[in-house]
């Protein structure tokens, strides 16, 4: 056994250069792998942010495509309506102030031409009411809905459009 150790010349030991070369290659591979993972992770998170921005942009585009409800405009009808009617042989009075609610200023302005017809329809409607029914909130709401239907019907007939969305009571007095 001593011969085997003696066979190797003292200057020829295992080369240290090969193990250093393996170490350098291993370090370079680890560094490249770390850089690759860093770039990949950055790209992943940034692209995910773009997807969120794209989704927001698509939502904004969808909002722009859907019609946006315009601001409500109110057109008061002046002067207030004062009507009288008989209730069980007793003279009763009702004073009602109205406002027309619409969304298009041009349509509301076009309806002003037909204001005498609207006033006539409202006077006829208000004077045909029952005092006891109007004393209850439900009766007032029913009257408001009937007034809305009358004005919408007249608006559709005369202008071809529903210029009025609702008729609102701004003052309601029964005596």
TrEMBL record:
<keyword id="KW-0282">Flagellum</keyword>
<protein>
    <recommendedName>
        <fullName>Flagellar protein FliL</fullName>
    </recommendedName>
</protein>
<keyword id="KW-0812">Transmembrane</keyword>
<keyword id="KW-0472">Membrane</keyword>
<keyword id="KW-0966">Cell projection</keyword>
<dbReference type="InterPro" id="IPR005503">
    <property type="entry name" value="FliL"/>
</dbReference>
<dbReference type="Pfam" id="PF03748">
    <property type="entry name" value="FliL"/>
</dbReference>
<comment type="similarity">
    <text>Belongs to the FliL family.</text>
</comment>
<feature type="transmembrane region" description="Helical">
    <location>
        <begin position="23"/>
        <end position="46"/>
    </location>
</feature>
<dbReference type="GO" id="GO:0009425">
    <property type="term" value="C:bacterial-type flagellum basal body"/>
</dbReference>
<keyword id="KW-1003">Cell membrane</keyword>
<keyword id="KW-0145">Chemotaxis</keyword>
<keyword id="KW-0969">Cilium</keyword>
<dbReference type="GO" id="GO:0005886">
    <property type="term" value="C:plasma membrane"/>
</dbReference>
<keyword id="KW-0283">Flagellar rotation</keyword>
<keyword id="KW-0997">Cell inner membrane</keyword>
<dbReference type="GO" id="GO:0071978">
    <property type="term" value="P:bacterial-type flagellum-dependent swarming motility"/>
</dbReference>
<comment type="function">
    <text>Controls the rotational direction of flagella during chemotaxis.</text>
</comment>
<dbReference type="GO" id="GO:0006935">
    <property type="term" value="P:chemotaxis"/>
</dbReference>
<keyword id="KW-1133">Transmembrane helix</keyword>
